[in-house]
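Why do we care about 3D structure at all? Because function follows from shape, and shape follows, mostly, from sequence. That is the central idea of this module. The next example makes it concrete: a single protein chain, its amino acid sequence, and then its structure expressed as tokens.
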Amino acid sequence: GLAVGALIALTLPQETGRRRLTPDPQLNGCFEGAGWNSATRVDRLAALQEVNPDIPASIQTGPSKAWVLGRGSWESSQSDEVIPAACEEIDVVVAHSGADRCLLLSGAASTAVPHHVTRWERHASSPTGWSVVSRIRESRQRMPGEGTRKRARTLAARLYSRLDDVFSSLEPLLKKAAAHTHPAYKATMTDSKGAVLVMCVNWGNLDLLMNFLRSACDKKIDVQNLIVFAADPKVEKALKAIGVLVFSHDALGSFTAGAARSYGDHTFVEMMWLKLTCVYLVNALGYDLLFQDADLYWWREPWSFFSTRPG
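And the structure:
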């Protein structure tokens, strides 16, 4: 069967020599009934960098050791292994090692949720005594202020006042993109005009889109049904120069050219408006679409998978 391991970075006692990758004697009985049959301590930074050499700088500092837990037997593992060869997959958890911070690590029999990480804190008014720590509070970001919300309402009013003009400008581009609808997906369509790939990009994130296009080219994946909603004139000009279908319209508003600096900041909120709007516009004109952010790349084309969707 498939061996799955877990790498947990926590504060641990210091030790001098390397240990063989066999069950740690300190853990005798500790994981009985929890499903973990093998465990060892490894060099924390070496293990993290073996999985991902480009780990963020913010987690490179910390304790010297980490636990690796597994469900199989590691008796045959070599002493020079950072992560046992029996681990074909590994879930990496890096948690703050404060004195009042604990880690609940649970296995699951279902493969429907291969990993699920949430952060909780004690809360007196909660029925269970615990409440989830929100993503915004955890990242110390703020919700959009009244000024930002007012701008969103202004943008919406401007768009709806010129909606017919936006539709008439967008339709020809969508028709061109939909001409490249994947055959497997096209065979399942009923009342749709076609299926297109949609992204929104500003100048600060153009490199991410170029990476996506290059990776698709390398894998010989056809992305000619891509249409990009450009947030600024520079990115529009650059993409048109390489033959990408690009749409922009002043009724959508003007946007910051730089990349967002943090979750929920002004640029982030502006781009969220454009992302929501482009999905609405494309669907309203009768096209199916796959919307994605630019910081992705495909292992293979997804349209064949979507063609198996329920009718």
